[in-house]
Amino acid sequence: MLDTAPLQDAYRTLLDAAATVANADDPNPAPPEGEWNADQILAHVSLISAATIASVAGVAAGANTTYDNRIALDAWTIERTIAHAGGNAGLRDRINDQATALCALAGGAALSDAELSTVAPALLLSNDALLVDQPMSLRDIVTGLAEAELPGHTNQLLALLPDRAGAEAPR
């Protein structure tokens, strides 16, 4: 079993930051050149969360799985996700539900320790740079989401606030 408390905390912190940005004087502040706006960040997180859920569910189903974040970086897919979710509030609701599902799957009895140790081919990019191109355990994928991916996007959201303008956070 995986302790999902850090993952739950990371999602909660991200969603709190997203709500803070949404409730700011300018709820849709322009991002720095080359960065995403709040809706694009949330759509990316939703797509990453969905990919992680798919990998966890695949292992639980006994299927071979992979983990690849390239679709979550695609501009067209991000915009389509925003539209399907109905914008910022819908994205926050979607991510909240995805967090609940992922924590239930990864932390409950759905996966054994052996299944969490299952290694899957992983390909992770950020800002057109290759971060990972090697097999990773499902446990490391979920832990990486909690320790790096979600906190990075939380900082990216907070950098959109007027008093934090100019702060950089990677995609």
List the helices and strands and how they pair.
Blueprint: H1 5-22, H2 38-60, E1 67-68, H3 75-85, H4 88-107, H5 113-116, E2 119-126, E3 129-137, H6 138-158
Parallel strand pairs: 1-2
Antiparallel strand pairs: 2-3
Helix pairs in contact: 1-4, 1-6, 2-3, 2-4, 2-6
Distance between the termini: 29 Å
Could you give me the name of the CATH homologous superfamily? dinb family like domain
Low-pLDDT segments, ≥5 res? none
Determine the strand fraction and express it as a percent band. 5-15%
Evaluate the radius of gyration: 16 Å
Number of strands: 3
Sequence of secondary-structure elements = HHEHHHEEH
CATH topology: Four Helix Bundle (Hemerythrin (Met), subunit A)
Q: How would a crystallographer describe the biggest sheet?
A: 3 strands, mixed
How many structural domains does the protein architecture include? 1
Level of helix content? 55-70%
Overall structural class, as computed from helix and strand content, comes to mainly alpha
Q: What is the overall number of helices?
A: 6
The CATH class is: Mainly Alpha
Detailed description of the structure:
It is a single chain. The chain is mainly alpha-helical. The protein has a single domain (5-164), classed as Up-down Bundle (Four Helix Bundle (Hemerythrin (Met), subunit A)), CATH 1.20.120. 57% of the residues lie in helices and 11% in strands. It is built from 6 helices and 3 strands, in the order ααβαααββα. It has helices spanning 5-22, 38-60, 75-85, 88-107, 113-116, 138-158; strands at residues 67-68, 119-126, 129-137. It has a 3-stranded mixed sheet. β2 and β3 form a beta hairpin. The two termini are 29 Å apart.
